[in-house]
Amino acid sequence: MTQTKIILTGTIKNLKVHTTKKGEKMALADFESENNDIIEVVFFPHAWKEYKVKIKEGKIVTLCGEFGDKVQNSKTGENGLAISFVVPRVKKTEEALITNWDLIKNPQKYEKSLNLKIHRGTNEIGGTCVEIWTDNARIVVDMGMPLVNPDKTPFDEKETEKHSRDKLIQDNILPNIPSLYEDGSNTALIISHSHKDHYGFMKYVNSSCPVYLGFGTQLLIELTNTFGDNKWTINNAKHIINGKKFNIGDIEITPYLMDHAAFDSYAFLIEAHGKSILYSGDFRLHGRTSKEFQWFCNDVKKTVDYLLLEGTTIGRQTELFPTEEELEEQFVKTFNKTRGINLIYVSAHNIDRIKSIYFACRRCKNKILLIDFYTANVLKTLNKKVDSTIPFPSQLNYKDIRVYYPHFLTNRMLEHVKKPETVRPFRPHKLGRDEIDKMASQLVMIVRPTVQYDLERYLKKYENGCFIYSMWHGYKDKPGKTKDFLDFIASKGMPIKDIHTSGHADLFGLKRMVEAVKPKHIVPIHTEKAKSYKELFSEENVREVDDGQTIQV
Ligand SMILES: [Zn+2]
User: Fold this and answer.
1) How far does the centroid of ligand 1 lie from the alpha carbon of residue 307, in Å?
2) Number of domains making up the chain
3) Is 398 helix (H, G, I), strand (E, B) or coil?
4) 425-463: per-residue pLDDT in tens?
5) How far is the CA of 358 from the centre of ligand 1 (A)?
6) Ligand 1: distance of its center to the CA of 195 in Å?
7) Do 488 and 511 reside in the same domain of the chain?
8) Are residues 98 and 134 located together in one domain of the fold?
């Protein structure tokens, strides 16, 4: 128990004055309440000197001091009261008589604690949501949308939009955290990165709720909303900075930049009342941001009470994953070998991968990276506002990045949502249909299923080309847009090659995280293999929990 300042009224009994080794006087006494509860009180020399004239056997007084285990009774082991102040007149306030004596009888009821509840993610990849709170503050880390339903069928965002917020809470789709939906509550939302399985339900949160996130993360979420169907915006954004602590009430949070497939991803160290939790977020150690991990290891508190450790890849793959630099080599080899066009299916938000592709283009003679104007918006926005090392279409430094205009997306942005500012700035870098076909052998073109219509219409030269799949393989095998797109590519006689590395840590990376923070407990999160943690990490440290279970840290 920590020391608690209290004021207490009662009767002085069994007063004994002692002389310390240093020759100073001090006193011990029993202190009895109206209801005959007794605790030991200690008047240390400085307090005794000041108050001895007021303290007499049998006298009712009001004392102010520190209650706790610093002054434990040597015989009974019970907590005592170290007096720092004696209130001059007897003050039988209800608070002093009842509340504080109650605290002495039931200290655990008043103990300041840090609590934790994983609403979703203890045995699931996606939909992550963690609530952490003390007596006076509450934070929610991530507000993710699930990837699958409880029966493992794909989660349908459109389906949820048919229902009210209350209904979604009732059906256990949205987390039941009332203060998140109320106006002006003491709850803050903290978002680790811009993947929807970590932020997708943010739109349901009350607009007054402060949202702590990286500036890059905010920009990527806003770009997704601008180009998609979402009309919501982040009203109350607060930007977090790598290593810079911030407080929500008595909870202190330190964000740490992590390497992940999403740009600007963070882990969080969360501390209060001498307790600590490290939420790993999604991370890996084989990308271009992995050098940040050494800094994290040096800066982070060395022993945390709880590590919430993501385990996406546990059970999926056992070997070490290639680094982004190794992928760059594979791209160089492939581009050099391919005599026709290179088509690459990659996420526009995977900045590390786009850098690997672009650097590979530069290393091959005469290659041009051709991106659609959505990807161009992402790269330019991040370059201008967050990280000037990100390449984007520009006459000045990146003449070898050109832009194409997919039919449906261009129409949508100009005619339907009327946002010409997303389309026009890249016109000087445009490569037209005829040029694309003519220059095919020079091009490394970033594509996705929605541009199939454009490829069908203006790309004639598929022969000698290569299609590179640079995403998680799981999307390939399921029926849907990706599979249809790959079938279309295969029908053109193009070879399909995988060049990819995971956005998540391999076992080596997970173990390095455990070594860095030496957790007393490891809690599985963002995994389908919670049961395997005990085989991979020290068994006694692993604590498997269920969604919705409260842990007092
Ligand atoms: Zn992620």
Assistant:
1) 18
2) 3
3) strand
4) 999 999 998 899 889 999 999 999 999 999 988 787 788
5) 22
6) 5
7) no
8) no
How far is the centre of ligand 1, averaged over its atoms, from the C-alpha of 329 (Å)? 25
**pLDDT for position 97:** 57
Beta-carbon contacts of residue 402 (< 8 Å; ≥ 6 apart): 368, 369, 370, 371, 393, 429, 430, 431
Q: What percent of the chain has pLDDT over 70?
A: 93
Distance, CA 256 to ligand 1 centroid (Å)? 15
**Does one domain contain both 186 and 132?**
yes
What CATH number has the domain bearing residue 418? 3.40.50.10710
The parent domain of residue 172 ranges over: 115-317+504-552
C-alpha span between 140 and 213 (Å, rounded): 12
Rounded to an integer, the average pLDDT of 313-327 is 87
Q: Give residue for tokens 């007149």.
A: 89
**For ligand 1, a single-atom ion, which residues have Cβ within 5 Å?**
195, 282
Nearest to 417 by CA among 430, 408, 428, 427: 408
Burial (Cβ within 10 Å: 0-12, 13-18, ≥19) of residue 63: buried
Alpha carbon of 162 to ligand 1 centroid (Å): 26
257/153 same-domain check: yes
Distance 433 CA to ligand 1 centre (A): 35
